[in-house]
Write a structure and sequence with these properties.
Strand order of the largest sheet of chain A: 4-3-1-2-9-10
Helix content of chain A: 40-55%
Shape of chain A: globular
Low-confidence stretches of chain A: 1-6
Radius of gyration of chain A: 18 Å
Number of domains of chain A: 2
Oligomer: homodimer
Structural class of chain A: alpha/beta
Number of helices of chain A: 11
Chain lengths: ~280, ~280
């Protein structure tokens, strides 16, 4: 099953509990068009956000092992905020290849973008509850306020990515964040999109933030960090046409929804999504 | 564990994959204030909607057995559209008490309310995909159009039950339904709320439907059917103060969210939600 690999065409495994991580895969393909990619969505067992750390670690380790052992991944990108927050150590213990999550790159990009040192983070309820972005921001000397925006994933999945209702919902959430920032004496000038669905709402967020504020797309930040990681390990692949990029998508269930919605996240057809059984 | 029971104070088990079914429990308490109630939300294993029929049947049967064997339920109300659509037979096979789902009562209420014989059904994606309401309406000589409204559960859980955004979303969904009804030559005069979360949006739906159209709350219809079922088996309990009603709530996970949001659905505090382990 392990395809032949060379340093010039690395195989990169990308993992998410669902298909939102396809936004990270999209950003990776743009930067590494001659790499091979294997994406796994553990759709049978989502949502991870409501499960215990131990269960998430077990699921994520199984998924990582599939990508490394069955698909020959030489690098792993955990394109899932919940797994990055709660299971990165467990994944690193389970495989022997370099592993990159989405949270640290997002926080690093916020550090680079913010002049005031105060940032806002929008994410799912589970990610906010983990406070992983807060910790990563604090570690970089940033102050941060996190806000759960539970309506945004359903709005993206409904296809309302450029819809007045979604713009209104984003405005309401940002107004609540700004009110909290004002009360706490924060002066934020960067907003981190801490969910793999949110890059599809990037233009609405850019219209909603104050002039001069940066919107940090953690999918882009993660892809950038992956390029640096791979360049540190291997020769940079020569740029090539994106159309040539070899991408295989796998899911543990719900292939229909994955194929139907995934192309919006990936920016091109997912192709046939292959069903895999990772067991309990 | 089985509490002492008599025909005058029946014990009624109410089951849902989450806590939305508390709207059905609320309607039951209003009608049967002297009954005892045990509610189980299988929150560790939700959402049922994305799982296979076999898996749902196994989960629902385990949950039903807990309510009958451990809690002494003499009647079971399946306050879950997915389980009612896909697992009612399996539940009836697993226990020896009368079992009532939410779909048949909703369709019967639509039959009673509609003069034109054409009805609209709003529900979750999983319920619409099962076409259980369509079949139940057809069996009663009704024509029906179903529509999945995936934004409404998140809007209810966000607490936006009387919010202009929610009113706008409902208007958009109903306009799409009306357009389809027009194209197909339907003349609908009843709208079935086919999800246990939607009773919290009842007033918004009533404002949004055309004058003279009925809004069928399947939680109310199910509670009414339960009263008839119980009256057919036992003496009618004498009316008593609702405050006396004995209610125990159980969940398989996520007790915190259940307690935080559940009171809105139940119309009173859930009390301590007890954690139970039903195994795999």
């Amino acid at each position: 099953m392990n395809p032949g690999t060379s340093s010039a065409t690395p195989t990169i495994g990308v993992f998410d509990s669902g298909f939102g991580g396809l936004t990270v895969l999209r950003a990776l393909i743009n930067r590494l068009p001659q790499a091979r990619f294997a994406f796994l969505g553990d759709t049978a067992r989502l949502p991870y956000g409501s499960k215990s750390r131990r269960t998430i670690a077990r699921y994520a380790a199984q998924s990582a092992q599939f990508l490394v052992r069955e698909q020959g991944a030489q690098y792993l990108v955990i394109a899932c905020n919940t797994a990055s927050a709660l299971a990165l150590d467990a994944i690193q213990d389970a495989v022997s290849v370099p592993v990159l999550g989405v949270i640290e790159p997002g926080a690093s990009a916020a550090r680079a973008a913010s002049k005031t040192g105060d940032v806002l983070v929008v994410a799912t309820d589970a990610t906010v509850h983990s406070h992983a972005y807060l910790a990563a921001c604090h570690a970089r000397g940033l102050r941060a306020i996190e806000k759960a925006c539970p309506l945004l994933v359903p709005l993206v999945e409904e296809g309302w990515t450029n819809h007045p209702v979604t713009a209104e919902v984003i405005e309401i959430y940002l107004n609540e964040l700004r009110a909290e920032a004002g009360e706490r004496g924060f002066n934020p000038d960067a907003l981190v999109l801490g969910c793999t669905h949110y890059p599809l709402l990037r233009s609405l967020f850019e219209q909603a933030v104050r002039p001069g504020a940066s919107v940090i797309d953690s999918a882009e930040s993660t892809a950038e960090a992956a390029v640096q990681l791979i360049n540190g390990h291997a020769a940079t692949p020569a740029p090539g046409a994106a159309a040539e990029t070899e991408v295989r998508c796998f899911a543990t269930d719900s292939v229909e929804k994955f194929e139907r919605l995934g192309s919006r996240f990936l920016g091109r057809p997912t192709g046939n999504v292959e069903l895999v059984d990772l067991g309990g």
